[in-house]
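Narrative summary of target 7.
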Amino acid sequence: MFKRNNESPLEMAEEIPAETFIAATGVSIFLSLFLFFSGRKQAAQFVGLWAPTIINLGLFLKLLRR
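Modeled conformation, tokenized:
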């Protein structure tokens, strides 16, 4: 990953739009549902735990922007 103007990775992550985190959360939920209904229940639970983590990351980065 290339740094621009000596930006830290955290500063670069702050520039990610909120819609990206919302979309990633939705994808993880739908992937979890797909895995659950295809019989891979443990994988579905694992992927299902990504949603709150992604949302919390987005909220954390939004707080840093203030």
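Helices lie at 9-13, 18-37, 41-48, 50-65.
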